[in-house]
Design goal:
Elements (H helix, E strand, L loop, with lengths): L1 H6 L3 H30 L5 H12 L2 H9 L6 H18 L2 E13 L2 E10 L3 E11 L2 E10 L8 H4 L2
Length: 159
Amino acid sequence: MISSMVEKGGQVKLFKIIRFGVVLVSIIAVTCTFAYAQAAVQKAPEVIYKGLELYLTKDESVAVDEWISGGPIPEENARALVKVFRDLKVAYGKCTGYYVVGVETVSPTAKVVYVQINYEKGPGYVKFYCYKQAEGWVVTKVDLNSDYESIVPEYFLKR
């Protein structure tokens, strides 16, 4: 078939077929890469970012109040959480920033958000469990640890 195309002046046709194949494969590769990148960098619910900004600019008490607002976390658990954040700040120094390591969408109404909080002397890691109520996203549970292996799943670390 190829020889018959060449014999009939089909060199141009062969070139066009090869070029079309290369372009098609390139488009598929770019599309797949973009789709993977979109899945990998999902946005955390806004309540997480608001609380992190409050922690960075104000203090742990105001941040925790933002995170527990409207959710099921009891006041006594919230105060214990404030103490853990405060103790971490005493050990590691002032909060200097944060990084959302990853977001898992469990369902349309449930997400788990993994955050690294940067301090002057080292990082802390937080796992926020979020639920979407009719009024918006709320935090239902918070885990905090200075050991990333206790908080962040391995597959987020291998990206």
